[in-house]
Write a structure and sequence with these properties.
18 strands; Udp-n-acetylmuramoylalanyl-d-glutamate--2,6- Diaminopimelate Ligase, Chain: A, domain 1; Rossmann fold; 5-stranded mixed β-sheet; about 325 residues; 9-stranded mixed β-sheet; alpha/beta
C-alpha cells in the first residue's frame, strides 16, 4: 500500500469536482483559480461585511447569499466598495454569489485586482452550502492508492490483493459473471469519508476496464451491462490471495476475523490460499456472505463451538 496522502485542494479543483452538482460559473478573477482552499467548511460573509474582521475565517470559501446581498445593495456605493475591498484584501480563496444574483461590479473589479475568483450559482444558499461542504470534504479526505481489485458483492465492498499473476482479475471476472459488480481493477483508490468509512473507487484512466492475462483489456459494461460496474463502494473486507505456505499457521476454525487498519479504520481481513482446482470466486463470495451473517449476529464458528462444549460437558447430544 502507498503512503496516505492529504490532498491539496485548489479553487479550480473545487470547481471541477462540483461542476455538475453545484452549477458554478466563473465571472471574475480567473487568474486566482490555483489558490489553495485550506478548510472544507464554508463561511457566509455576514459580520465581515460590517468591517469587523478580527475573527474572520479567511482561509474558507466565502459565500454571499440573499441576506448579504440585500445588505450590500442598501449601502451607499462608496461604503459598499470599501467593505468589499477589506474582504478581498484578506486574501480569501474565492467568493461565491448564490440564488441567481449577479456579482456586483465592485466584486468583479476586486476579483481581477486581487486575483481572487468570483463565482456565482443559481442554487439556494442553504442547499449550496450543504452540497459544497460535501464536495470539499471528499476532496480533502485522507486517501491512498493500493494494488488490488475491488468488487461489490451483495452490498459489501471486497478488495482482492496478492502478488502479480496470482489471479486477482480472473477471480473478479468470475464474480462479475456471477452477477456481482466491478469497482476497480488492479489499482484501487481509497479515501476516508466524513462518516468514517473507507470508500474505494477506480482511478480515472482504468475506470470500467479489466486486464485479463491471455485476453488483454476488456470493457466490463460493454460485455456484462451497466449493472456490472460501480463508481465507488465502501470497503468491508480485504481478501489476500496467497500461497498455501503463507496460511499454514492460520486459524482454520473461522473464529474472530483478522483486522487490517486502513486510513485509521479497522477492516476485516482474510487470507485464502491459491492452489490448482480451487474455485476462488466461490470462496470469496462465501467469505462476503459469511461476513454479512456475522454482522447480523450469526457466527457459524461460535455456534459449532457451543455445540461441542455442550456435548463434552454432558449436555444434549447432537442429532445424527
Amino acid at each position: 500500500m502507498t503512503r496516505t496522502q492529504q490532498n491539496t485542494v485548489t479553487v479550480q479543483g473545487f470547481l471541477d469536482a462540483g461542476r455538475d452538482r453545484l452549477a458554478l460559473e466563473v465571472v471574475g478573477g480567473r487568474a486566482g483559480l490555483r489558490h489553495r482552499v485550506a478548510e472544507a467548511a464554508m463561511n457566509r460573509l455576514g459580520l465581515a461585511l460590517t468591517g469587523f474582521l478580527e475573527y474572520f475565517p479567511r482561509h474558507r470559501i466565502q459565500i454571499l447569499g440573499h441576506a448579504e446581498m440585500a445588505y450590500l445593495l442598501h449601502l451607499p456605493k462608496g461604503e459598499r466598495a470599501a467593505r468589499l475591498r477589506k474582504v478581498f484584501e484578506s486574501r480569501i480563496p474565492c467568493l461565491i454569489v448564490t440564488r441567481h444574483y449577479k456579482a456586483l461590479p465592485e466584486m468583479i473589479a476586486y476579483g481581477e485586482q486581487y486575483r481572487t475568483p468570483v463565482l456565482r450559482t443559481p442554487l439556494i444558499t442553504k442547499n449550496f452550502i450543504n452540497a459544497a461542504t460535501i464536495v470539499m470534504e471528499n476532496l480533502m479526505a485522507p486517501r491512498m492508492t493500493v494494488q488490488g481489485t475491488m468488487i461489490e458483492i451483495m452490498g459489501l465492498g471486497v478488495l482482492l490483493e496478492g502478488k502479480a499473476g496470482i489471479g486477482k482479475s480472473e477471480t473478479a471476472l468470475a464474480l462479475v459473471k456471477k452477477g456481482h459488480s466491478l469497482v476497480a481493477d488492479d489499482v484501487t483508490r481509497l479515501r476516508l469519508d466524513s462518516s468514517g468509512a473507507v470508500i474505494g473507487a477506480p482511478i480515472g484512466v482504468t475506470r470500467f476496464h479489466m486486464e485479463i492475462r491471455g485476453l488483454g483489456i476488456i470493457h466490463v459494461p460493454s460485455l456484462f451491462g451497466v449493472a456490472a460496474i460501480r463508481g465507488e463502494q465502501k470497503l468491508d473486507l480485504i481478501v489476500t490471495l496467497c500461497t498455501p505456505e503463507a496460511t499454514a499457521e492460520d486459524d482454520r476454525s473461522g473464529g474472530e476475523p483478522a483486522l487490517r487498519e486502513v486510513l485509521g479504520v479497522k477492516v476485516a481481513h482474510l487470507r485464502i490460499p491459491v492452489v490448482p482446482g480451487r474455485d476462488l470466486a466461490n470462496l470469496v463470495e462465501v467469505a462476503a456472505l459469511d461476513l454479512m451473517l456475522k454482522r447480523l449476529g450469526h457466527d457459524a464458528a461460535k455456534e459449532l463451538d457451543q455445540k461441542l462444549i455442550s456435548v463434552l460437558t454432558g449436555g444434549e447430544a447432537p442429532l445424527d
